[in-house]
Amino acid sequence: MASIEQVLNHESTAPVVSNSTLSQTGSNNSNDLLSYTFPDSTNLVIERYNKYIQLIHSIQHFANGYSEIAASTIKQYDLLNKTVTTSMPNFESSNEDSGVSGSAKLTVSSTASDNIGINDGVASTVTDSSSPTDLNTFLHVMRQKLGDGYTRSMDFQTKVQSQILPDLTQLVTEVDKKQKEYASYSNAEQKDLSQLKSNSAKVSQSLDLAVQEFEHGVNGSKNRSDYKKDPYLVKKTLLRNAALQVKSENNRIEFLANGEASLRSSEARILLELRRIFNLLTQFIDENFGGVVQSFNILRETLNRVPEDFEWSHFLEKNSAYLITASSVMSANNEQLNSAMSNLSVNSNKTDTALIANNPYKRNLESITFRNYQHVSTKPSLEGVLERKESILGLSSKYNSYYFVITPSGYFYGFPSKSIDSFQPNLVLYLPECETKIKNSSGKGEFTFILRGKNLCTLVPKPKKKYVFKASSAQDFDTWWKVITRDGAHTNHAEAGTIFSGSDISDNDSE
Predict the structure, then answer these.
(1) 207 with 336, same domain?
(2) What is the pLDDT of residue 215?
């Protein structure tokens, strides 16, 4: 016999959604960073596991109760009837229009037939032994068959206690563990995602304020303010937050899709294990009872007529708007689904991971939009790679390549690279407050210029300092020089190698 750990700990085997079609769950803009939402099936999945825990408990109560009835009286039978029926769940496969607990469509009663008499309605539920049935029918028949168990033998009681109940206890323990692990991980993941969304919202508000401040500048002149309020830099920070948020969203979508797929296949595997256990229980009854054999055969046949994917189909039909795996996609994969289910066993584990990876709810950063994304103040006036002269312990110096940006606000930023992850500048100069000089030796193939100003991103304010930059070509040099002088850096002369009027830049200055 396969262990219960093997039964439940395999990865999900059921086919899941493709990204071709998906039922719509809302009209939110999938490209908007802040307003985008997607279905979260955490509570549904948790409640679904609860139902199967209740189902296993019901069968536990049922089997244990029959063991007690073997040495009990009619009063003990009455107690058994109450114990079993009060813990039975109600599944979506009910023929009634009312909703059930743990489903998106919930009404007042979760067990519509709780008050049905012991012998009511049996013929209507079990007359056609060839047609498929559902778990509600099985549970309904179970309640009715409690009236058939007035006597038991010691042999039957011993077998139930030693072979049936331990397997059910182990099964419910594993299902409960699986549910708690899922709930714990999902809650932690949702908390992290909520924090990232909150961070994005705060930075988005900062970007709105920064853009307003930029637009309120007098006659379009540069609005000198804290560089951290520069729309370009705020946008760059928001893009970084967006990247983290989208990654977290996509991870959660994968988690939810995997969770639903795992739940789906777990239902089938649990049902198969319950079949095995219940078939064994029925065998014991056949060996020790004469008059009740027919009753238990009916119960066994009813449970055996529940298709592995029958309950899932009804669950999906009523809750498709709340699940990552939507019914329209699942119906398109019926042939694949039936093939997988026909080969399913307790130890099998077949999952189409590509369908989860390609879930249409997942987003790419390239498609994300947010307010002021295209505002002129957030776009660089010029960007590219320059070489910056740096000294090592004040003894020697060399040129290192960095990514530099000039913004419409007049800031000159230096970043380690162009990557979104590189959103904190390591050099910030405000060009209207800088002095400039061309240190150009074009004959030697050097295209160098100097900026002298305060690095605004240092923690401790420092005096002005000389920064030497080198372009890769004459054309590149001219492009940078034109934008720098246009955006307000102080220069009174354009001749190469000249110290400008009022400037204290000298060739002997060290960085």
Answers:
(1) yes
(2) 87
Cβ pair 34, 200 in contact under 8 A: yes
In the chain, how many domains are there? 2
Residue 509 lies in a domain: no
Calculate the dihedral angle through the C-alpha atoms of 105, 110, 113, 114, rounding to the nearest 10 degrees: 180
As given in the structure block, the two tokens for residue 286 are: 């056949």
The predicted pLDDT at position 116 comes to 39
- For 99-147, what is each residue's pLDDT tens digit? 566 555 543 333 334 443 444 444 444 546 678 888 888 888 877 777 6
**Segment 10-25 mean pLDDT:** 40
360-396: buried (b, 16+ CB within 10 Å) or exposed (e) per residue? bbbbeeeebebebeebebbebbbeeebbbbeeeeeee
Is the pTM higher than 0.85? The answer reads: no
Q: Give the dihedral of Cα atoms 503, 506, 510, 511; nearest 10 deg.
A: 40
Whether 252 and 335 share a structural domain: yes
For a pLDDT cut of 90, what percent of the chain falls above it? 42
What is the sign, positive or negative, of the torsion defined by CA atoms of 316, 320, 323, 324?
positive
Confidence of residue 405 (pLDDT cuts 50, 70, 90): very high
Give the distance from CA 89 to its chain's centroid: 29
Residues 335 and 446 placed together within one structural domain of the fold? no
Asked whether residue 342 falls in the same domain as residue 449, the answer is no
Q: Which domain holds residue 469?
A: 380-486
Distance in angstroms (rounded) separating the CA atoms of residues 361 and 249: 9
Mean pLDDT of the chain: 77
- Asked if 377 contacts 234 with a C-beta cutoff of 8 angstroms, the reply is no
Q: What are phi and psi of 256, to 5 degrees?
A: -65, -45
- Place 469 in a pLDDT band, splitting at 50, 70 and 90: very high
Q: Could you tell me if 80 and 65 are in contact, meaning their C-beta atoms sit under 8 angstroms apart?
A: yes
Residues 6+ apart with CB under 8 A from 97: none
Mean pLDDT to the nearest integer, 214-228: 67
Instruction: Please report which confidence band the pLDDT of residue 217 belongs to, taking 50, 70 and 90 as the band edges.
Output: confident
Instruction: Specify whether the CB–CB gap between 482 and 406 falls below 8 A.
Output: no
Those residues with Cβ within 8 angstroms of residue 338's Cβ, 6 or more apart along the chain or in another chain: 309
In a domain, 199, yes or no: yes
Helix/strand/coil for 92: coil
Task: Judge if 62 and 127 occupy the same domain.
Answer: yes
Cα separation values, 54 from 87, 139, 233, 309, Å? 6, 11, 55, 19
In a 3-state reduction of DSSP, which class is residue 505?
A: coil
Residue 373 belongs to some domain of the structure: no
Count of other CB atoms within 10 angstroms of residue 3:
12
- How high is the pLDDT of residue 355? 63
**Residues 6 or more apart from 41 whose CB is under 8 A from it?**
256, 259, 260, 319, 322, 323, 324
